[in-house]
């Protein structure tokens, strides 16, 4: 049986191949975007886990939009106006898929930053969208390019990760956030704000979300994978009710609803009196690991390599002199360290600037030091 034309256009994920190679116990992986298992708040979830046996109602079919107590809690947490609502999805990745299937027709234009999140490129590729890109600065998207793109391409939506961008770690400035919202309103472009790393800030003060400045022209994707556990597979989408109702229709056809026991478990976790302390511990741990990785990279790498500091998230973007980053990544695997090369983050990888994405959340300090030592050895041999 022939697979669908849309799927034929999707290339095998290089990250999947890298992660498979990185399972070798002799390889230190800086490749995945994995939270550390030690941060999973299992102790905080135990009381709710033990009480689930007394909640038979959560093992029945549930509402497609989500478990009532969780929807109420998120409405309060996110201070949603009466015209807005949350919807629970099986990870925020499903939320993105629902948005694409509900709103994007073949050849509709979707704007993304370049580089951008690989999973989003795959989702929009599957619905056969035309992906237009704008370059990224240290403060967010190039605003002149973005406005020209809005004028020339009349896109349906602009997808972005403003807080600790995947893969570059860039956090948009306040001025950029306001300007992007202004442009989306002016040119009637829906802003899709993906915020999986927002709570992982470990330096500085949080900035308002972009959607704060264009609440009726945006949909927000939120994830609990990084602050609770990826295995829960719980995410949330928020926005105007009129924006979310089509998503609920698509989700009903996709999986009826996300796991109700897991939603009930998340309610117990979010309401736990020590949840705030749990978040502080995650932020502190990741800051320590980031500091180690950044300092070692500065100390050991050739001067031709460029890296910018980040204030949170999970990634450092290491810019390199022009080279074959796929070949470099394979050489690094052979030398015991896994990374992700830059071309996989571009819809059109040909000519992508040479860079590597490095993750610092899932290796301890000793492993990070050793990983940089292996990385520096290869780069000094390859780039000189």
UniProtKB/TrEMBL annotation:
GO terms for molecular function: pyridoxal phosphate binding; transaminase activity. Gene3D superfamilies: Aspartate Aminotransferase, domain 1 (3.90.1150.10), Type I PLP-dependent aspartate aminotransferase-like (Major domain) (3.40.640.10). Residues 27-374 form the Aminotransferase class I/classII large domain. Its cofactor is pyridoxal 5'-phosphate. Keywords: Aminotransferase, Pyridoxal phosphate, Transferase. One of its GO terms (biological process) is alpha-amino acid metabolic process. Pfam families: Aminotran_1_2. This is GntR family transcriptional regulator. The gene is ydcR.
